[in-house]
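The pair is set out directly below:
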Amino acid sequence: MLADVVAELAPTGVLRAGINLSNFLLVTGKSPNGDPEGVAPDMAREVALRLGVAVKYVTFETPGKLADMAGRGSWDIGLIGAEPQRAETIAFTAAYCEIEATYLVPANSPFNVIADIDAAGVRIAVTGRSAYGLWLERNIRRADLMRTETLDGAYDAFVRDGLEALAGLKPRLLMDQAKLPGARILDGRFTAVQQAIGTAGANSSGAAFLRDFVEEAKPSGLVARLIARHNVRDLSVAAAASPT
């Protein structure tokens, strides 16, 4: 029943939506009253409309800080990349959109293939606790991950320390590439960050509602319209979830 869902997802009478401000594809601006604007805030607003409640945005500087507050009464739904480590405390929907992650390498780099980056002696600059950073932690075997607190910090370390690769979302890497003559973005991707909606694991009715919402939002064109509304490039509508 919808009443059970509202009780779980809006226990205060308002849907508190956790928003990661560091994802510049999903949060593209700020309203006159200071609220974040973009695809992620609009998705949260749509959830609130379906529930018949108002939305309140709870903002975080990084996705890791947002994930840390799961189940602690700070937010009711969180819009971040779905990763197994985060799924230990957050019940995620399938992705509603996805973003390719790859590597930037400096001029004269010998590397041309993504798979070759995972080699002894290779140092990869990466934003710690980002969704793609968590993927690298699980999958990199020989290269060394040089973690930083922020996106800008990862870029600075890459340049300052002469690192062999910078890991990141392709749209951000395109911006970084423009500042480094001769730098190249490797073709393909090592992963695609699955942007999803999550809630506390105990919210079984709320989690089921969110899963259904996302699976309706993709084929209905809602996600595509939000991407177009905010003129976001390199952001793709995710495929339908596989039947379970």
